[in-house]
């Protein structure tokens, strides 16, 4: 299940030859997974897919807790607030919806002109942001709503709308202190959009193709990107200084930073439309582990029968989950040996 790469001593290899327990398979979607998210405590996993349902699962045993029903199109994004009270989903049915996490009741529905690609709560849980696609003659917009003002929700009027005329937003996360949103674009750019004025605070272009995913470190000081240019990069979230690069031979769909180790996990594979022409081995449908400091790959985990679309570390760092084009979410728990592993210089 777990394959070690590089030049390791025999003792290290034997210790790490089976650092993966049997994964838990979550089967709750009929179509490919688009995003998975843990809540802050890590006891729940939220998954959305190209079907119309958002699922919530217990991460400890993979039991399905419930579903959020109401969308009529593919779901692209999901987020949960700090105290696991509300859930936010964005869909290709041109709506972003707010749900009560516990009961599954729909609290609000925000209609848009095009598909909602990214969404997220700020640290307080009071401000939400979501971006819409550039399609059907409409350009991409980044919208900010304050949930404390019911009038905004009722009138479907955000307190701030930022047009993105040049290139559409393909992934976005809140920066530290909820002061700005860090957005990745179709052309490989990363921008910081102020949550107060909407202006672009900083802009960098380290990727030359579309950014598929952006995720933050547990303390929000760093972000990691995953790009179609077959690389993943680590940035300082405040200055957007480029820190590290992790290169592969296949497009990277998602990347996550371990909360307790200097490790990053990346998921990807070839384009979904090319999957039927190759075997699972050639398609490179593996989660790949890199050392965050040395930029060296040290392990791979097989399992999915198609490209991995999203990866996420458990907040305690003792397990990670991956969601694939095959419609399955897999929860992988690390063995104790994983935590003793040190990269040999």
UniProtKB/TrEMBL annotation:
Keywords: Cytoplasm, Initiation factor, Protein biosynthesis, Repeat, WD repeat. It is found in: Cytoplasm. It comes from the Eukaryota. GO terms for cellular component: eukaryotic 43S preinitiation complex; eukaryotic 48S preinitiation complex; eukaryotic translation initiation factor 3 complex, eIF3m. The keyword Repeat applies. WD repeats lie at residues 26-67, 68-109, 301-331. It holds the Pfam family EIF3I. One of its GO terms (molecular function) is RNA binding. Its main location: cytoplasm. One of its GO terms (biological process) is sprouting angiogenesis. Component of the eukaryotic translation initiation factor 3 (eIF-3) complex, which is composed of 13 subunits: EIF3A, EIF3B, EIF3C, EIF3D, EIF3E, EIF3F, EIF3G, EIF3H, EIF3I, EIF3J, EIF3K, EIF3L and EIF3M. Belongs to the WD repeat STRAP family. Belongs to the eIF-3 subunit I family. Component of the eukaryotic translation initiation factor 3 (eIF-3) complex, which is required for several steps in the initiation of protein synthesis. The eIF-3 complex associates with the 40S ribosome and facilitates the recruitment of eIF-1, eIF-1A, eIF-2:GTP:methionyl-tRNAi and eIF-5 to form the 43S pre-initiation complex (43S PIC). The eIF-3 complex stimulates mRNA recruitment to the 43S PIC and scanning of the mRNA for AUG recognition. This is Eukaryotic translation initiation factor 3 subunit I. It comes from Hucho hucho. The lineage of its organism: Eukaryota, Metazoa, Chordata, Craniata, Vertebrata.
């Amino acid at each position: 299940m777990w394959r070690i790469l590089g030049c390791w001593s025999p003792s290290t290899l034997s210790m790490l030859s089976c650092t993966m327990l049997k994964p838990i398979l979550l089967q709750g979607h009929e179509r490919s997974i688009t995003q998975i998210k843990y809540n802050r405590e890590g006891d729940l996993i939220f998954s959305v897919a190209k079907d119309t349902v958002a699922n919530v699962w217990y991460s400890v045993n993979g039991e399905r807790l419930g579903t959020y029903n109401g969308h009529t199109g593919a779901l692209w994004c999901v987020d949960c607030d700090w105290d696991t009270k509300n859930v936010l989903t964005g869909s290709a049915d041109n709506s972003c919806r707010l749900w009560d996490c516990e009961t599954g009741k729909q609290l609000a529905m925000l209609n848009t002109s095009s598909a909602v690609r990214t969404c997220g709560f700020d640290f307080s849980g009071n401000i939400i942001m979501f971006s819409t696609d550039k399609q059907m003659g409409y350009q991409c917009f980044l919208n900010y709503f304050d949930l404390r003002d019911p009038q905004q929700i009722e009138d479907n009027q955000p307190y701030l709308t930022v047009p993105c005329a040049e290139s559409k937003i393909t992934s976005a996360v809140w920066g530290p202190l909820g002061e700005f949103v860090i957005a990745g674009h179709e052309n490989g750019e990363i921008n910081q959009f102020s949550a107060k004025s909407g202006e672009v605070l900083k802009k960098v272009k380290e990727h030359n193709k579309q950014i598929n995913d952006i995720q933050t470190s547990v303390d929000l000081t760093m972000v990691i990107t995953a790009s179609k240019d077959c690389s993943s990069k680590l940035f300082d979230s405040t200055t957007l200084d480029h820190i590290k690069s992790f290169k592969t031979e296949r497009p990277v769909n998602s990347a996550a930073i371990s909360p307790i180790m200097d490790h990053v996990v990346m998921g990807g594979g070839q384009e979904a439309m090319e999957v039927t022409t190759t075997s699972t081995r050639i398609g490179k449908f593996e989660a790949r582990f890199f050392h965050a400091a040395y930029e060296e790959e040290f392990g791979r985990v097989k399992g999915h029968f198609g490209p991995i679309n999203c990866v996420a570390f458990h907040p305690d760092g003792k397990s990670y989950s991956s969601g694939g084009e095959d419609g399955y979410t897999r929860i992988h728990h690390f063995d104790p040996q994983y935590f003793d592993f040190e990269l040999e210089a």
